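Final report, Chapter 2: Outcomes

The project's central promise was a pipeline that accepts a single protein chain and returns its three-dimensional structure in a standardized token representation, suitable for archiving and comparison. That pipeline is now operational. To close this chapter, we reproduce one record exactly as it appears in the project archive, with the input sequence first and the structure output second.
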Amino acid sequence: MSLASRHSMVLAAGMVCLALCAAGAQAAPPSVYGFWLTEEADAIIEILPCSANNPCGKIAWLREQGPDVRDVKNPDPKQRTRPICGLELLGGFQTSGSGWVSGWLYNPEDGKTHRDVALTVRSGGAALTVSVGGGFFSSSETWRRADAPAVRCPR
């Protein structure tokens, strides 16, 4: 085998390796962790890694704050006096190829806990789609990445 033939084979092998490596090296999805401003801009939710590094979220800031902002619509009368600020409102997620699925979301505005919640980070990590349910009766909301609030809810 001539030197030119060997050089061509090495070059071809290198190109195949480069193509395979590039195809297999996908960028990690943007992180779901951090602070998110809700669609109505009335709360900032902090999403943290919790059990098994799956996300959970607490209210880190509320537009309406004060000692009278309580979980008054909770179906459990014993929970109706707890403050909403600092409340854990999402969790139970499991990882999936496109984000996080099978979670729950508590909505203090109506006192309901929604199941089958999914989180999908979009727009290069700047937006988070929170989807409740699947199929015809599903709904979703888009949260925007936010800075840590200057005034935070008690932890």
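Archive annotation: The first strand starts at residue 34 and ends at 37.
This record, like all others produced under the grant, will remain available to the consortium after the project formally closes.
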